Amino acid sequence: MEGASVRKIEKICVFYGANPGKDTIYVNVAHNLGEVLAKRNIDLVYEGGSHGLMECVSIAVVLQGRHVLGIIPLAFTVKNLVGKTCGKEVKVATMHERLFKMMELSDAFIILLRNFGTLEELFQMIS
């Protein structure tokens, strides 16, 4: 298309479940996704923490030298429910604020569907 501008994707937000499940394919896909993002010079915005698939994607991105930003509601930090975020962490008051902040800071989104909670976040984001 003549005259159409292409927007460069610099930050991608990835939604996924914390639980990797019993099948290692989910862990492998998450790790590979992190490597692909980093190799394409794309930074990661995610739900924060270091459990399961969250850890796989974020560590792969950091190991390749890219930036990672985790957005975590304050309620999750009280008892360390999500573990330590890999990279920079931003704390927000509510789940709604977290979703808004993730959308605000990201150029695109990827969903690695593992559970209904991830699906719920997808529907909230597109509504």
Order of helices and strands: EHEHEHEHEH
Beta-strand segment tally: 5
N-to-C CA distance? 29 Å
Largest sheet: 5 strands, parallel
Number of helical elements: 5
Structural class computed from helices and strand pairing: alpha/beta
Give unreliable regions as ranges: none
Order of neighbouring strands in the sheet with most strands: 4-3-2-1-5
What does the overall shape look like? globular
Strand content: 15-25%
How does this structure look, described?
- It is a single chain.
- By secondary structure, the chain is an alpha/beta fold.
- The protein contains 5 helices and 5 strands, in the order E-H-E-H-E-H-E-H-E-H.
- It has helices at 24-39, 52-63, 74-78, 95-105, 116-126; strands at 11-16, 43-46, 68-73, 88-92, 108-112.
- Strands 4-3-2-1-5 form a 5-stranded parallel sheet, with helices on both faces.
- The chain is globular.
- The mean pLDDT is 83.
Précis, in short:
The chain has helices spanning 24-39, 52-63, 74-78, 95-105, 116-126, and strands at residues 11-16, 43-46, 68-73, 88-92, 108-112.
Could you name the key traits of this structure?
alpha/beta, 5-stranded parallel β-sheet, globular
How are the elements arranged and paired?
Blueprint: E1 11-16, H1 24-39, E2 43-46, H2 52-63, E3 68-73, H3 74-78, E4 88-92, H4 95-105, E5 108-112, H5 116-126
Parallel strand pairs: 1-2, 1-5, 2-3, 3-4
